[in-house]
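Input/output pair, single chain:
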Amino acid sequence: FVVEGLLKRGYDVTIFHRGTHEVELPQEVEHIHGDPHFKETIEASLGGRTFDLVISMYGRLRYMAEVMKGRTPRFIAIGGVVVYKGIFRPEHNPEGIPLPIREDAQLQTDPELDRFSYLMVVSEQKVMEAHRQGHYQGVVFRYPMVYGPRQLAPREWSIIKRILDGRKRIIIPDGGLTLETRGYAENMAHGVLLAVDQPERSAGQIYNIGDEKLLTFRRWVELIFKIMNHDGELIEMPALMARPSRPYSGRTHHRVLDITKIKTELGYRDVVSVEEAIRRTVQWYL
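Output:
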């Protein structure tokens, strides 16, 4: 969706990836194959190339942010909500996270507590530092759990597969009442492209992003049932007992983002409704 949006805007698009998996893209899209996970391999793969715009969605962001100094006037970074202290492990933040979570909420800055989250915070800081130093106009997006075709954590498939296998009962923890901000792939790309279109307004900013409409986990499963014409039963269990549900239910505390900033500053609105997005996702997996 991002590549298609850039092509529609008249950009000559190049993608940089290892080449392990290829996705069918328009013929005019150039591919640079290399390893974006190490500074040395990034530099070797790019050589002396420069770009009008870089959208960093893959590899190690902190290295991309460093290597792109002097190569681009604009750098849009895609990070994630795991930068917030306690968002996935509430025990890491005894004070709790005020909901909905704003961009100025407490971050996970302790490498001993969770090194992965800590390095994501470091990556954001690298982008913002380069922006302040004038190397490029930097923007950071904090993605939620993304759903839709080709996503890396396909929770929906866990439900779909159970239905295809003919199971009549599906476990949901704590009544399925958990609320979590998610983002349909096309909606998330739309948000990034809003920053592409508004360079001055978005420069130096950090944005939460996600679908505008929130659904409980129970409603999410019920919609998949409806789309697949499945007459199944939802079995409620306390979360501590509902271990078989974890691949598709995730954790059982609320993870709700405040997306007021991107709506106010960039005019974000969902381009695909949540109900339609789930339908398209289910159809793609089928």
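The radius of gyration is 20 Å. The mean pLDDT is 95.
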